[in-house]
Amino acid sequence: MRRFLTLSAINGFVAIALGAFAAHGLSGRLSPRMLQVFETGAEYQMTQGLALLGVAILTNQWPQSRALKISGWAFVLGLILFPFSLYLLALTGLGWLGAITPLGGLGFLVGWVALAVFAFKQV
């Protein structure tokens, strides 16, 4: 639980900080499209970080659940690959970074499926 809770808190902090940076520091410096890409990264980082918070809370009650562990680590992987590939894409314009983003999305999907498996088995 402690790892997922800590990672969730760090992600929340980073999402707020980078969202504020986008709103106040990047407006006018990036094209509207690239600013939207950056903001999408912050939005997904926050929402999926909250999903990780939920997994952390559940892990406290069911610490031996394999499905929760898979869910949590899949969310962590997604939280690294998805938003940060978008941040870097927006800031650098390197189009190949967009190929990494779906891998992060896949991490999110695996996290949600594993959470559903947990719910089906436990609740």
How would you describe this structure to a colleague?
This protein is mainly α and 123 residues long. It has one domain (2-122). It is 85% helix and 0% strand. It contains four helices and no strands. It has helices spanning 2-26, 32-61, 66-92, 101-122. α2 (32-61) packs antiparallel against α3 (66-92) and α3 (66-92) packs antiparallel against α4. The two termini are 19 Å apart. The model has no long low-confidence stretch (mean pLDDT 95).
Which helices and strands appear, and what pairs or packs with what?
Blueprint: H1 2-26, H2 32-61, H3 66-92, H4 101-122
Helix pairs in contact: 1-2, 2-3, 3-4
Characterize the biggest β-sheet. Answer: none
Topology order in helix (H) and strand (E) letters: HHHH
Alpha-beta classification: mainly alpha
pLDDT averaged over residues: 95
Amount of helix: over 70%
Query: What is the gyration radius calculated from CA atoms?
Result: 15 Å
- Strand percentage, roughly? under 5%
